[in-house]
């Protein structure tokens, strides 16, 4: 085998002791991993590379690159990859389930409390303090993504274009795929690819597209007429889990588009409350789906939504574990993902702009956001502590009114 053959991702044979150790570790991580995907990845690196020595540095980077390349929640997919590498197919399932399960149970308990007591001053006060902080955290994630995603004038213009089209109601999946194809064409065409890509985002082309979309949107009209059902809830989250690229915060754009705009099952406030609950709990941000599922359909809805949004991750890891090394080295795949990433940035900015109207309701919420921005951007304070502090402020205010 020559040096140019891509690295494979072999796994160790699974033993009962391996499975028990793997399950115990990811259960503990699921209960304690606050701070979002970047924090989860750092915690996994410290434990599985430095402390337990399950993986070397290069293998960890290979797995992280693989998790970034496929759709879905990166840190959850990294847990699934590590489980597969440590204990084969049983480890693949066990690693992912044990990381997701604690967060799902915690979010489900909070969803029950929200349904029972959500209108009380204490709970509303907690969310009053947390929501402005969540907006700033999303903005910080968008800023971080932007430094990686905007690499040229084309990607900068493309990001702004996606933002504007999203605000004007264009379908999210269409925007993601179109952005990926435009960058792929620009970077890989030998004859005028950049010019062709620029033509696709020219003002005249955008005006024609907007006119066509604004005159007819039968899918949205049909979805708005459909009452709530568990199968539709499951398949909506299955679709989101199967196509979502970018950080967990891009999930907000999909949730807003499907559950607020198209289906009309959630209000803006309920979506922000779901996001806030996802932020104050450990584990995957995607357990926001658990909260929404419980809100709409009780325990069956919570379980169906959770299964729907995470199931594609297990499937993608299973089928990609052998082919990811080759895909990562493809300039076509890499350029397509460049377009996906910059579109994800535009979507994150767009949904943040929409949600600010619900989060910023008075001078105090604006002040909380400004202080959070200072602490987060200047002093790099852990977002978990910022959310906890905002929650305490909200609770204290609610107790005095």
Describe this entry's structure for a reader.
This protein is mainly α. It has 2 domains: 16-100, no CATH class; 101-399, no CATH class. The chain has helices at 16-32, 37-51, 57-69, 74-117, 121-149, 153-167, 172-188, 193-200, 203-215, 218-224, 230-243, 251-262, 268-280, 288-320, 324-328, 331-359, 363-378, 383-399. Helix 5 (121-149) runs antiparallel to helix 18 (383-399) and helix 7 runs antiparallel to helix 8. The protein starts with 15 loop residues before the first helix and ends with a helix. Mean pLDDT is 81; it is low at 1-8 and 212-224.
Order of helices and strands: HHHHHHHHHHHHHHHHHH
Number of domains: 2
Count of distinct strands: 0
Task: Indicate the structural class.
Answer: mainly alpha
Q: Output the number of helix runs.
A: 18
Low-confidence stretches: 1-8, 212-224
Percent of residues in helices: over 70%
Strand residue percentage: under 5%
Chain-averaged pLDDT: 81
> Over all CA atoms, what is the radius of gyration?
21 Å
Measured distance between first and last alpha carbons = 72 Å
Q: What is the general shape? A: globular
Q: Specify the biggest β-sheet.
A: none
